[in-house]
Amino acid sequence: MKRAAIAKLLGRAIAVLGLGLVFGYGIAVAVRNGLNSNGSEQLLRITHWQLEPGFREALQQAIDDYNAQAAIAGKAVRVEQTPLPLELYKQFLNVHLLAGTAPDIMQVGDFSLAQTHAANFLLPLDGPLGLPSAYDAGEDLVGTWRQHFNNDLIDGRLGTDGRTYRVPLAAGGTQRIFYNDGLLQIAKEVLYRSLELDVAPAWLQGLLADDPDSAPVAISRDSSGLRRWAASPAPPETFGQFVLVCEALQLYASLQRLEDLVPIAAHKQVVQALIPQFQASFIHPRASEFDFDSDGLATYLEFQAALDTGLLELSENRVRALFAMWRRLVEFFPPGFQGLERDHAMRRFLSGSALFLPAGSWDAAGILGTGEVLQPRSFRVGVMGPVVPGPNDRWGRLSPQLANETQIGGGLHFAVRKESPLADYAVDFLQYLTSTEANQTFINRSGWLPIVRGVQPHPVMQPFMPRRDGVHPGMMGGFFNRSGSETLNNLISAYVSGGLAYPIFSREYLATLRNPRLGLERAWYDQREAEMQRVSQLDRSMEAVRFLRTVGWEKEAAPADLQRQLLYESQRLAAGARTIQHWRLAGYDRAFPEF
Amino acid sequence: MRAENSSGKAAARGRRGNGERGPLLLLLGLLFAVGCDRQTGAELELEAALEAGRQAISGMRFNEAVAHYERAFRVVQREDARWAEILYGYSLSLYYNESSTVRELRIAHDLMQAVASGAQEERLGHNAQLFLARQHMMAFAEEGGLGDWEQAKEGLLRLMQNDHARELHHEALLRLVELNRMRVDEMPNQDQAMRLLEYWLQQHPSNPLAGLMWQQLGQLRLYHSADKGGALDALMEAAVGHLDHRSGDAAGMLWTTAGLARDLGRHHEAVVLFELLISEYPFSGYRSQAESELEALRKGHGS
Q1: Strand pairing report for A219-220 and A208-209
Q2: Interface of A with B in 290-309 (CB under 8 A)
Q3: What is the number of other CB atoms lying within 10 angstroms of the CB of residue A74?
Q4: Within an 8 Å CB–CB cutoff, is residue A556 touching chain B?
């Protein structure tokens, strides 16, 4: 009896343990699958860092529409978005890519393992891109999915193996200047009244002259259109007019004791973001002289080499004009702008304490309002492009021009996780999102610029459409360069912020340029190193593909023309010989720098 | 699977009519089956390791591939048909595994050398020869040792003389051009690069890389021979006959060639090229300037 009881107890214990094991296993499976399933539906996760107003709502609209269609079509999948701040996003993505738990679709930029090790973590999209999209619709969307995009996705080749791992939902942005129309009209009123006086008031006397070249900063007194423009509600059309309204606003702020009111809401990145837009203005007529390798571009290195070898001098009128104009612009920035973040500038403008705000098209949805996210505000906001000196302005005789913006490329790039069990659905969703109808709705609500053929920008985004006229941006050469010398960039910032006199600045600039460790030699060396690294990566991809093909893995190896593309790129770089040849063409007789 | 079937048949024959020897044959059959199972297990493991190695290389995960090929080494026999593949795959993975030590890189080199000399008639052997020549080229590019340059040249020439390696002749020739171009300051090498390019273009006029090669020939003529007319002829071939739309710098090449034609007074060609630039690349950054150039040329020369 006792033994029977023990046996019964043992049996129950075993049964409970067994049930527990089964239950635990069930939970483990459920937790694991829970990452990607929700009841009978599978959960497709999409993540991004676009937290500005408009984007999340636009994406949600597309997701809702897709989910509804998927339900009708009997697809057992439901899409959900997970927005994250950019600061968190980079770490989040790296950790989850390594752990194998990254979302099925993810926004990718020029950072994170998704970029450096794209082949490891991302699904190559060349296959589906080479076929018609599942959502082909509209006259403009014939042919393959790749052909849906305006630039045929040349910039989609994330990584170094020549494969396409990402598709853009929109075009990259453009930079513009937002203005507070109420403040603009006040400033223009001040200006108009001053111009109407028989004797120009003191503040204006310092700005106008009979000969524009001798005017201290702004505009010729004889400018026939000046009064007419001042009487109109139009924003500045020339740099001279821009300076005049900034000066007028400063006078108004001083008279009204509005200490917080400034002409331009700037922050620490503005110098390097705004100023380059003006840098083609004066030097472009000479840019072809610095295109030493005749590739149609005057690159940063070529431009700096021209300065180093004396082909272009810092004392030349065109160069001095450029720096003087930049310095004039920075005079209208708030004190201590080098310590301010982008959000400070945005808040200052939106609270009515700045006349101008230099910002990008990606900020437009929040500032102007698109679709249903219109922000009610006490003043009207206008948008204008950067301006150059007009014919009657100082420096106007140097025929300044802006660079065109035809090559802005793609923006909002999204990729699919290679190991995602829902990879097919992920591709399907991206095809849906880049179809004419869905993308049009997305563009209308998000306020981004379109990249899908046949999709029109939201009407309020028209001023942000890329400029077609102007100099090729590659002929700007330029002083500022993100990949250029940080020391040189800092020197320019110090000069334009008023910290250095021009003779000292030019002396220091050339000294730094010729400093072997900090200057141009280092930059040439770095360029060749980067090129060599790229050649090594190309070799690696080529050899992997060659090996796999030889052992009969034709299909898995790569798209049919990948081997050719890799060889093409490798031949172009010629194992670093291109940069050495370039160095010679730039006029250097000495040996290529080594460190 | 085949091994299991044959052992099963042997066992069945034993059961059918061998009388007293039945138990003994059954035992032998079982022993044979166990042996076959072992063999099958090894084969399966080899297959799995090779499959995983290929998969890892396909995903460029060379550190992972190293481990798979090491696993393959443990079970493979030297005479196995896949021996060369394992040597090659292991060597490749060691070369490109970022955490390989110098010793491992030496092993990788020796293994690749073994494939190159041991499988001379086979594609993997030819690939290995090209691979080694390329390694010497890269060593020359990084360190400038002339010994490496000579070895790379020798390896490429040997490959080009091998009738069995025809599929790699065109790439080997291109690498030989590249090798000569790498000695930027040596005129004889630049001349040789031009001659080789001309030969390659004669042999492969419709190869998808022909456009780039015409372009390179044009640049070499321009910079090393100062032959502007010859350069323009080559660049025209690249721009008109072999324009590669997928190339990121095709518009720039058209712009440069058109400018050269204009400077040489060959205005008709300049007009054709500017028109081509505008029609083929309407979104190019050169468009606005090309339109101005075209207008100026038409005004000046009524073309």
Answers
A1: parallel
A2: 293-297
A3: 6
A4: yes
Identify all chain A residues contacting B223, using CB atoms and an 8 Å cutoff.
581, 585
CB A381 within 8 A of CB A359: no
Q: Which residue of A has its CA nearest to B291?
A: A469
Q: Is B114 exposed, middle or buried (0-12, 13-18, 19+ CB in 10 A)?
A: middle
- From chain A, pick out residues whose CB is under 8 angstroms from the CB of B142: 532
* DSSP letter string, B205-228: TT-TTHHHHHHHHHHHHHHTS--H
What is the secondary structure of A176-187 as a DSSP string?
A: EEEEEHHHHHHH
Residue A455 per-residue DSSP state: P
Whether A547 sits inside 8 A of B137 (CB atoms) is no
Among the residue ranges A217-231, A420-434, B233-247, the one predicted with the least confidence is A217-231
* A41-48/A105-107 β-pairing: parallel
- Using CB atoms, pick whichever of B124, B181, B285 lies closest to residue A407: B285
CA–CA distances in Å: residue A517 to residues A58, A280, A301, A511, B160: 49, 28, 15, 11, 44
| A594 touches B at CB < 8 Å | no
Q: Does A533 touch chain B (CB under 8 A)?
A: no
Q: B287 contacts in A (CB within 8 Å)?
A: 404, 406, 468
* DSSP state letter for A404: P
CA dihedral A287, A291, A292, A295 (to 10 degrees): -170
- C-alpha–C-alpha distance, residues A578 and A583, integer Å: 9
The minimum CA-CA distance between B60 and chain A, rounded to whole Å, is 7
DSSP state of A395: T
State the CB neighbour count (10 A cutoff) for residue B218: 28
**Is the pLDDT score of B8 beyond 50?**
no
Query: Are residues B286 and A546, on separate chains, in Cβ contact within 8 Å?
Result: no
- Cα separations (Å) of B67 from A543, B94, B105? 19, 10, 15
What per-residue confidence (pLDDT) applies to B80?
Answer: 83
**Residues of chain A contacting B248 with CB distance shorter than 8 Å:** 154
Contact B7, B29 (CB under 8 A): yes
Alpha carbon distance B261, B254 (integer Å) = 10
Nearest chain A residue to B210 by CA distance is A568
Rounded-to-integer distance, Cα A5 and Cα A11, Å: 10
Q: Hey, is the C-beta of A554 within 8 angstroms of any chain B C-beta?
A: no
- Other CB atoms closer than 10 Å to residue B202's CB: what's the count? 8
For chain A, positions 141-160, list CB contacts with chain B under 8 A.
150-152, 154
pTM above 0.80, yes or no: no
8 Å CB contact between A173 and A361 = yes
Task: Note whether A418 contacts B92, CB cutoff 8 Å.
Answer: no
Q: How far is B71 from chain A (nearest CA, A)?
A: 18
How does the average pLDDT of chain A come out, rounded?
Answer: 82
Report pLDDT for B2: 37
Which DSSP letter does residue B116 get? H
For every residue of A187-255, DSSP letters joined together read: HHHHHHHHHHSSS--HHHHTTEESSGGGSSSSEETT-HHHHHHHHS-PPP-SHHHHHHHHHHHHHHHHH
Instruction: Count the neighbouring beta carbons within 10 Å of the beta carbon of residue B201.
Output: 18
Does this complex have an ipTM over 0.90?
no
What are A220-273's pLDDT values in tens digits? 666 668 888 999 999 999 988 999 999 999 999 999 999 999 999 998 877 766
Give residue-wise pLDDT tens across range B133-147.
Answer: 999 999 999 888 888
A545/A536 Cα distance (integer angstroms): 14
The H or E element that residue A16 is part of is helix A2-34
- CB-nearest to A548 from B58, B137, B252 is B58
A560 in reach of chain B (CB within 8 A):
no
